[in-house]
Amino acid sequence: MGYFLIRRTVGFVLTLLAVSVVVFAVMNVLPGDPALTILGLDATEDALDALREQLGLNQPLLTRYFLWIWNAVQGDFGISHSFRVPVSTLIGERLPMTISLAVAGMFFTLIIALTLGIGAAARHRKFGDWGVMLISQLGIAIPAFWLSILLVMLFAVKLRWLPPGGFAGWSDPVAAMRSLILPTISLALVQSAVLARVTRSSALEVMRQDFVRTARASGLSRRRVLWRHVLPNALVPIVTIVGMQFAALVTGTIVIENVFYLPGLGRLIFQSIANRDLPTVQALVMLFAAIVVTANFIVDLLYVVIDPRLKARA
Amino acid sequence: MNRRLPTNLVIGAVLVALVVGVAALSLVWTPHDPTLMNIRGKFADPSEAHWLGTDQLGRDVVSQLMAAARNSMTVALVAVLLGGSIGVALGLFASAVGGWVEDGVMRLADLGFAFPALLFAIMLAAVFGPSLSNAVLAIAFINIPIFARVTRGSANQIWTLDYVSASRAAGMNKFVISRDHILPNIAAAIIVQATIEFAVAILAEAALSYLGLGAQPPASSWGRMLSEAQTLMYLAPQLAIYPGLCIITAVLGFGLLGDGLRDISDPRLSRQR
């Protein structure tokens, strides 16, 4: 176990470093003068020089890279050019929104997908099964942002039950929750379409095995066998997809925050692009990529918890 | 081979033929010029002249949807071809050379999975400004590791076959074997993957254009039509319906076609589904 942990952790750190090189390279090595990009073509030479100095553009690339990493590890992502505050402060303010969306989205994805997937497997080749498969096929093809628009048209414009977008802050928790209902549902419905299919096929695979028949024969109820015996044994492929989906969910929040005008990291990244605020974009892209890599790392560790047999092979 | 064709293959093929047909038709004919504005005729109801009415600038909706289909197909085709050929080349190379080179290439491919298309497009947009070509590049980029993995996995299986060993023993160059023997034998797997990635690319283009990182005005795009329609939900909700239906039709079509092709090329995989 110790060897496995060390190997995985080293791999994880190396991947993070490699990701940081890619982000830094795309944002800095590609042709173009960041100072000019930020200030625009009509900037004076003095202003450009001052900004180059502030961004450290006069130093060699390698020095800049290591300075960026060194500072980032200590939580310093530089100063946002457009907001004129440290990027870390901006991230701190907006992270709770994005995390709440992603976690709530994942929670509902799991509930919807496991219920539908196990339910479909239990009714294999019957009407309910076909229904779930049809819905999930459609769910995979629906863009999350279009589903959001449709939900807004129904629940905000037509029925007026929920706000169409925007966020007034956490001070009024009820209003805050109401603003997050539609975004969360949009995220969860699309993601659960994929997960429901995987759950179904994984559960079908397990249901064919002898111990399931034995469990049924020994008098356990159908429901108990499904949830206590089939599901735990069907978890490995499900967890793989959940890990990939958490990554999709986090980038999904970028889209959804922009659909619903929610003040999270995804909205910040687009404001920063519009403001040509390169240090902020660089920090945020790195943060999102790091979240994706971390999710995969956690899945790798979870495998061993779920299925100890994998430890030997790892 | 007297089996019935799988249902998903048939439905997928019909939907794909519909979308590709409309896209091809738009090259030579649309009911109106999709970019032609007519402010006085804005928000027109469906009529004989405008089958689905007009938008906030009086542009014909059907013509725009058709032009958008063409743009969407072009983006997906270029992105999948570009990313796919690089990925296939990398996968073949890794599989042929083996050893630490293979490990290295596959590690690099793993790295690509850390960057969803959206993140890559965001980086390119921040440096170069948003454009359709940046969106194509971003979508192509995420296809590289996917195709590298599929190609290397399938190629490794072929390398173990007797006739490949025979070619090796006869002194054939590894890269010539890759081209003449490996590639034709894994073509089916690659085509299946390409069809599925085509669906993913259509979805990605729509999302990027919706967010303003893809097609720029006046180019027509389903994603951009939706972002414009979103601001007009109270006035003209129907404008937010049609482009979404087009996206679903295209994505569903290529997705089902890909699933169906996989079912006939490798029946073992389909039994569970």
TrEMBL record, chain A:
One of its GO terms (cellular component) is plasma membrane. This is Peptide/nickel transport system permease protein. Belongs to the binding-protein-dependent transport system permease family. Residues 95-299 form the ABC transmembrane type-1 domain. It comes from Sulfitobacter undariae. It is found in: Cell membrane. Pfam families: BPD_transp_1, BPD_transp_1_N. The chain crosses the membrane at residues 12-30, 99-122, 134-157, 177-198, 230-261, 281-306. GO terms for molecular function: dipeptide transmembrane transporter activity. It comes from the Bacteria. It is a multi-pass membrane protein. InterPro entries: BPD_transp_1_N (IPR045621), MetI-like (IPR000515), MetI-like_sf (IPR035906). Its main location: membrane. Keywords: Cell membrane, Membrane, Transmembrane, Transmembrane helix, Transport.
UniProtKB/TrEMBL annotation, chain B:
The keyword Transmembrane applies. This is Peptide/nickel transport system permease protein. The keyword Transport applies. PANTHER family: OLIGOPEPTIDE TRANSPORT SYSTEM PERMEASE PROTEIN APPC, PEPTIDE ABC TRANSPORTER PERMEASE PROTEIN. It is found in: Cell membrane. Its main location: membrane. Residues 69-258 form the ABC transmembrane type-1 domain. The chain crosses the membrane at residues 9-29, 75-101, 108-128, 182-204, 240-261. Gene3D superfamilies: MetI-like (1.10.3720.10). It is a multi-pass membrane protein. Pfam families: BPD_transp_1.
